[in-house]
Amino acid sequence: MNGASSPNGGAHNMHGLRTNGQQNQKQATNSSCCSSFQMPLHYPRSKKSDYETKPEWKLYCLLNEYGLPIMGDVTQKRKFAMGAFLWPNQV
C-alpha cells in the first residue's frame, strides 16, 4: 500500500475529493446551504421623481427584494434607494 487509499476503498486527496472527482457527502452538504438570497431578474427602472413620491411600503418591498438594509424613516429609505438604483447623473 502506498497510503493513498482509505479504509472504505476510495482514495482521497487533501481537498476531500475522491479519485473519481466526487466530494465527500459531508462537504457537499455544507456548501449547498449558504444563502437563500436570489437576485431579482430586472433592475428597477424608476426615475428620481418616482422615488420621491413612492409610498414607504413600496420602498420597503423594493429594498427587501434586493436584500438591502431597511432601517430608518421614509426619507432615509428614499435616499438610500435613489443612491442604490439611480445612475450618478440622475441623482
Strands, helices and their partners?
Blueprint: H1 25-31, H2 48-53, H3 56-65, H4 74-85
Helix pairs in contact: 3-4
Brief sketch in words of this structure:
With 91 residues, the protein is mainly α. The chain is built from four helices and no strands.
Can you give a write-up of this model?
The protein has 91 residues and is an all-alpha fold. The protein folds into two domains: 1-34, no CATH class; 36-91. Helices cover 38% and strands 0% of the residues. The chain has four helices and no strands. Helix 3 (56-65) crosses helix 4. The termini are far apart. The mean pLDDT is 74.
Give the H and E element order. Answer: HHHH
Which outline best applies? globular
Number of helices: 4
| Ends distance | 69 Å
Mean pLDDT: 74
Total separate domains:
2
Rounded to an integer, what's the Rg over CA atoms?
24 Å
Fill in the keyword field for this structure.
2 domains, 38% helix, 0% strand, globular, 91 residues, 4 helices, mainly alpha
